[in-house]
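Checklist before submission:
- one chain only
- standard amino acids only
- sequence pasted in full

Submission:
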Amino acid sequence: MKPFAPLLLALVCTLIPPGRLAAAEKATEFRRLSLTEYRDKMKAGWIGQIAGVTWGAPTEFKFRDRIIPADKVPVWKPAMINDAFGQDDLYVEMTFLRTLEQYGLNVSIRQAGLDFANSGYPLWCANRAGRDNLRAGIAPPDSGHPKFNQCPNDIDYQIEADYSGLIAPGLPQFAIEMGEKFGRLMNYGDGMYAGQFIGAMYAAAFFESDPVTIAETALRAIPADCQYAEMVRDLVAWYRADPNDWEKAWQLCQRKYREDPEYQKASNGGIDCKINGAYVLLGLLWGQRDPDRTIIISMRGGQDSDCNPSSAAGVLFTTIGFANLPPRFTQELNQKTLFDHTAYNFPKLVAVCEKLARQVVKSAGGKITRRKGEEFFLIPVRAPQPSKLELSWAPGPIANSRFTPAEMAQIRVDNVPAHMHAAVRKFAPGWQIANCGLDMDPGLRAEWGGKPNVLATHPLDKDTGCTLSNRVKVPAGKTARLRLVVGHDPQGDFDLIVRANGRELLRQPVSKATATRDPWLVREVDLSQFAGKKAPQIELVNQPSGWAFEAAYWAEIKVIIE
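Returned file contents:
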């Protein structure tokens, strides 16, 4: 039959004019997106995230398992757009962008883990557990595995996956791949699928405007049998059944995804990805493409009520485009300020996204063409191939992945909030701090427990105490003692440990039973044995004893030499 192939092609070409034939081929195999439109939509996606998280920030986790009353919704003011530069909903995902920028799209999951381990910002929930695992040498993918991470279904990667769609217009497979690379640093199962779904919604939003179509398109990017996919199908069905009553849908979400134990397995309460993902869709669907309504409904769902409207608005704003956004969301944006812990201000963020998008399109088999002086993406249309189904409450085997000694040497972190070094220098000059956790707001207090100028510290985790250290020189022929006045939280306790050159000189519970000058304990430790010797390294440890209100409150740290 081969000799007839040219004849058949010629016959087809006589039936369909060449221009229309080429257009038909492109319509079936590629979608065209101008660089101008890509930039406009991508910028809008970031503005949506920024607007959603800053508008909802005052309500975050203040309303659990109840709808936020309408009169408790903050009033939007254009200057609020600049409250986003310190939001973890934004700067964490920019860590992933930076890794892609520096190492390319094929960066290994281990390098992604090293970069995340070296991040210096505060973290909570699955993010914190995953990063702690990485810093302890548990390499990805095990850092997010339920054996090592008790928060596998938390919302974390869901709120950080926006980047994966914003740099992959029309390419949901890339969002899936980034979930396997970055989502596994801290999540597993539904926790990872949640981010893949969000990323796929952004990818769809470059070509679709209807929220239902966007949700159903993104649904193809995650395993059909996972609970997260079930939640998406439910929300779409409930919307179609009653597109006007979002509060009724909220009640349905509450009964199924909060009150039914079947959907609470491996859940961490109100931070679970399914219920918060439902509130994203609540705003996106029932908001009916109105920016304010979308943000407000998603916010009023409660729980993580800044991150949820951020995701909903990010997707919606992508469909709208920057040029068409209401000026109240763009006119006050500061173009110069860097997002905390990143190398990016808004223009640099936009630039790196375009740079990566060009690479993503080409790596997916697409092209960048030029016509009449304007560049276009030609983006291949391909059905996504979801990750395999995993259940966080019945996980598969671990990978036994550990960082090598050489990799561990690349992890250089300061486990201390940035402000604490200055606080310690002011409170106790010459002393250093290490392994200070973020819980209970460590730092200087003008007054606490009836005493002025108090330093609050907190252990890094359940096993690692916060340590204050200094080298103390005791002159020959002199006596010396270390005087400590330290208090405990009324609801908690901790162990006070004093060491010299690693040798324990004192271990003392600080609690209601021992702090007789409630809530203060006064102790003096003799250092005279070090007179005339090399200055010993003195360590004061705020050691956890039960992981409940473990903060230490230091009113006095004084070396007395006589």
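Reviewer check: The radius of gyration is 28 Å.
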